Amino acid sequence: MAGRPESGGPKPAGYYRLARAVLYREAVLFVRYPANAVGGVVIAVFFFGVLFYGGRMVAGRALTDSIEGIIVGYFLWTLSVGAYSAISNDIGSEVQWGTLERHVMTPFGFAPVALLKGVAKLVRTFLTSGIVLGVMLVVTGVTLELNVVTIVIVAGLSITSVLGLGFAAGGITLLYKRIGNWLNLLQFGFVVLVSAPSLDVGWLRLLPLAHGSGLLQRAMLDGTRIWEFAIADLGLLVAVAVGYLGAGYLVFQYATRRARRLGVLGDY
Fold first, then answer.
1. How far apart are CA 157 and CA 224, in angstroms?
2. Which of 40, 78, 186, 227 makes a 20 to 30 Å CA pair with 261?
3. Could you give the CA distance from residue 87 to residue 214 in angstroms, rounded to a whole number?
4. Cα–Cα distances in Å, from 248 out to 102, 172, 201?
5. How far is CA 128 from CA 67, 123, 166, 167, 218, in A?
6. Cα(156)–Cα(133) distance, integer angstroms
7. What is the secondary structure of the chain as a DSSP string?
């Protein structure tokens, strides 16, 4: 019958195979171009070294007393920058390479492919940021509570909201192409979000990263496990993550359709 694959013929690829292929591609890129990955780790460690040693010379005891919170915040910031730049920069690179339209022509559509690529980037970012965290602990001699399950869940949901911002930025990149300076500026805004006093000012919990940063501080400084958080806190963390990811995904789809209507999708 027409429209059905012949018995014994190739089966249509599903989302599972797509996810496996995207993860495999990311692993291959990580292995074949290790200098770039190592460079990212070295730069992150270098900036922390400047912050730690420079701050100790200037602030002395004040910085030493708050170094645990600084390490947790810096760890979340590196995760956030990795997740955000992975999406926005990856889409910008696809436009420059001229390979973007291939993704649009896949049977899955461009947005699901971009979403899975973002998830793959998150996995890689967790690995590199974990190395940065280990170096920071060795350099400072600080000991933190490292319950992996709690950290992965809280940090993962926290940077999911940033993934939504990355999608929105990627959509804007499709329309206006070279806006790298504006995109880089937003990365510094993550510092404000990570350090926002969400426990004192309630409405700040609705912003990306702010609520998750507070929960991650409790998990890594006080040893709070995931099941020891209040249901309302976890519910808000999930709601903020899903809300920003959904909004960013819708912006990305709208920008993709508009770029196709204007005929500028593959232009650069």
1. 16
2. 186
3. 25
4. 22, 11, 25
5. 21, 9, 19, 21, 22
6. 15
7. -TTSPPTTSPPPP-HHHHHHHHHHHHHHHHHH-HHHHHHHHHHHHHHHHHHHHHHHHHHTHHHHHTHHHHHHHHHHHHHHHHHHHHHHHHHHHHHHHT-HHHHHTSTT-HHHHHHHHHHHHHHHHHHHHHHHHHHHHHHHT------HHHHHHHHHHHHHHHHHHHHHHHHHHHHH---HHHHHHHHHHHHHHHT--TTTSGGGGGSTTHHHHHHHHHHHHS---GGGS-HHHHHHHHHHHHHHHHHHHHHHHHHHHHHHHHT-SS--
The answer to which of 20-29, 34-43, 60-69, 251-260 has the lowest mean pLDDT is: 60-69
Joined together, the tokens standing for residue 132 give: 């940065």
Burial class (CB in 10 A: 0-12, 13-18, 19+), 212: buried
Q: Of the candidates 50, 96, 109, 110, which has an alpha carbon nearest to the alpha carbon of residue 74? A: 50
Q: Which two tokens stand for residue 9?
A: 């013929």
Query: What are the distances in angstroms from CA 154 to CA 10, 87, 190, 193?
Result: 41, 20, 17, 15
CA distance readout (Å), 223 to 36, 160, 195, 215, 226: 34, 23, 19, 11, 10
Tens digit of each residue's pLDDT (9 = 90 or more) over 141-196: 888 888 889 999 999 999 888 888 888 888 887 777 766 667 777 777 888 888 87
Residue 7 confidence (pLDDT): 53
219, 204 Cβ separation under 8 angstroms: no
Instruction: Give the CA angle between residues 180, 186, 187 to the nearest 5°.
Output: 95
